[in-house]
C-alpha cells in the first residue's frame, strides 16, 4: 500500500538508529520510513516530504543530538504544517525530568520510550501512536490500516462515528 504518511526517525547513533529501523520495519508497507542523524537533516527531509505532498504521521526522536537537541526539535516541529499533528515519541535514556516536562507541555509529546527497550513493547507504542494518528487525521480512511494497526480500535471508531452506516 503506497502512503504519503511517513515515520520519521531522528537518531545520531548508528546502532540505535538501526535498532529503531528494525523495530518499525513491519509498518513500512503502510508508512514509509525515513531516518536521519540530526534535527537539521530532519528539517531538510520534512521540507522535501512537504514538497511531495506528504505528511509525517510519527516522529521517533532521540534527545541528545548534535547541535539541536530532540526536545527543541519537537517543539519547533509544532510550527510545520506536516508535523504539527504527528504523533511524537521521545526515544532516549538521557532526557532529564525538566526536558521531558518541556516536551510534554510544549511539543505535544505523546510518549516516552527509555533506552534500551524491548522490541515488542516498542512496536506496541508505534502501533498505538499510528492508530491514534490514523483515527484523527481528517479525510484518511482507516480501513486499509486495519491489518497492521489496532483493528479492534479502528472498528470501534467506525461503529461509534457512524462511518459504518455510511458505507
Structural class: alpha/beta
| CATH topology description | Rossmann fold
Oligomerization category of the chains in this entry: single chain
Beta-strand segment tally: 5
CATH superfamily: Response regulator
Total helical segments: 7
In whole angstroms, the N-to-C terminal distance is 21 Å
Strand content: 15-25%
CATH architecture descriptor text: 3-Layer(aba) Sandwich
Order of strands, main sheet, comes to 2-1-3-4-5
CATH class group: Alpha Beta
Reported for the largest beta sheet, the result is: 5 strands, parallel
Low-confidence stretches: none
Average predicted confidence as pLDDT: 89
Radius of gyration: 16 Å
What's the order of the H and E elements? EHEHEHEHEHHH
Number of domains: 1
- The share of residues in helices is 40-55%
Shape: globular
What features would you highlight for this structure?
46% helix; Rossmann fold; 5-stranded parallel sheet; 167 residues; alpha/beta; 7 helices; 5 strands
What's the structural blueprint in terms of helices and strands?
Layout: E1 5-10, H1 14-24, E2 33-36, H2 39-51, E3 55-61, H3 70-77, E4 87-92, H4 97-107, E5 111-114, H5 119-136, H6 151-161, H7 163-166
Helix pairs in contact: 3-4
Q: Could you explain the architecture of this structure?
A:
The protein has 167 residues and is α/β, with parallel strands linked by helices. It has a single domain, classed as Rossmann fold, CATH 3.40.50. 46% of the residues lie in helices and 16% in strands. It has a five-stranded parallel sheet with strand order 2-1-3-4-5, with helices on both faces. The longest helix is centred in the C-terminal third of the chain and has 18 residues, at 119-136. It starts with a strand and ends with a helix.
